[in-house]
Design goal:
The structure is a homodimer of 241-residue chains.
Chain A lengths: L6 H8 L3 E13 L4 E6 L13 E4 L6 H13 L5 E8 L10 E10 L6 H5 L3 E5 L11 H18 L10 E3 H12 L5 H10 L3 E8 L6 E6 L1 H16 L4
The structure holds a DNA duplex (27 and 27 nucleotides).
Amino acid sequence: MRKKYSMLDIASYSKQTKYLVALDSIIFGFDGNQLNILLVKRGPDSTIDTWSLMGGWLAENENLELSAERILYELTGLKEVYLEQLYTFGDIHRDPIARTVSVAYFALINVEHYDSSVSEVHHAQWFPVSEMPAEILFDHRQMIDLAIQKLRYKAALHPLGFELLPEKFTIPQLQKLYEAIFQTTFDKRNFSRKILSTHLLVKLKEKQKSSKKGAYLYQVNEEKYKTYSNSFLNFVSNPEF
Amino acid sequence: MRKKYSMLDIASYSKQTKYLVALDSIIFGFDGNQLNILLVKRGPDSTIDTWSLMGGWLAENENLELSAERILYELTGLKEVYLEQLYTFGDIHRDPIARTVSVAYFALINVEHYDSSVSEVHHAQWFPVSEMPAEILFDHRQMIDLAIQKLRYKAALHPLGFELLPEKFTIPQLQKLYEAIFQTTFDKRNFSRKILSTHLLVKLKEKQKSSKKGAYLYQVNEEKYKTYSNSFLNFVSNPEF
DNA sequence: ACAAAAGTGTTAAAACTACACCCATGG
DNA sequence: CCATGGGTGTAGTTTTAACACTTTTGT
């Protein structure tokens, strides 16, 4: 598949300006009540005394996603989380220190897996989406707003809420999560009917007894979940528009 | 809003590797029958004797979107087209000449506005989405596939098809467009009912007489269209999930 | 025994799908 | 006059939204 490149072509490359490339992650977590975002006061390599997203630099030996995964791991100790590219920000003065193009990712994590000791080092703190600090670094506020928008958009059409919950969870927990995402309330009969109609959940024998009556635990049917995720585009492009 | 940055912080910036940043555009056009993508053999600054997307380099005095708009203008003579960021590609060896991060945009253009003379210079050519050349530069094939996927996804949920048609068009034309996008056929009664139920179209007095009977021309109600586009997220996040 | 949260069913309205005939005109 | 493509309506089915009472159990 190799092609011959003329000297001229290669020369055009070397004339070009190069830019710093950063990765920033909007990390969502759900504490059972509120949807939260993880902010840091100071990344290991980062710099400034303002709340900001977790970020870092693109490494020469990594592609974008890998770099984002590495940074997430360094700062939270988490691996194999749901991570999706959100948008790339490149305004000239978005970073006043030096022009930087930042590729933003958003992550959905299960807070039970989150090891707070790892990120204490980085002065990380969870903030409810409705109570963000007033001052946030650079354009990170914009990134956060876009991430929330996209999370809502995706969650309305695809079953990705599970990513924010423990392996076993109850329907009322799931409903609280969706209510936190959409900042609204749902009718529980309609909600559970809709969720169960996907057949993505397996009802377990056990109950979680944090309430008086206790609620049945459910688990994601991983097989169907994968298929479902892979087919959502078919699902959307099928109907008579 | 200025903050004090320590010397240390700024030093961390200067240690970092910088990268080439490119912009590539997937340009969609509709010829009344097929959905097409515009490919070039050789951009002005580009290089290689293979079909590729229109692309160029990020300029120091432009943000990403502006650079993408400029490149599109240089190569097609088009301004103010529908342009949306698609995804950022950054695999290590995606460009074998030098490591380049490429921000891909997709554009929807009205072929009536397209001045083919401008892009003859660049050896541009329209290809039906179903008949792409076998060999396409770098990862541009991947970009194209993702763009088609996203176009279908968005078109199924949002009324953006209009961007590909002239100001005045008929329902049958619009239907052909959607059939080309989704590579399927629709029932014309259901289709027109669905389209008209949005109240986004204004029926004009004139008819287009390319068929024997002639079909009524319609125009987008720009006011409602803007509102609709701005509110689609509400629309999606509202339903009881 | 009662408060608190879980679980469950019905009905009316709206949306969707499938389907067939008449209309206007240019050749 | 007839072939071509444009235009329109209805009925059955599915999906959605609104709504209230019973169950369990810890205190």
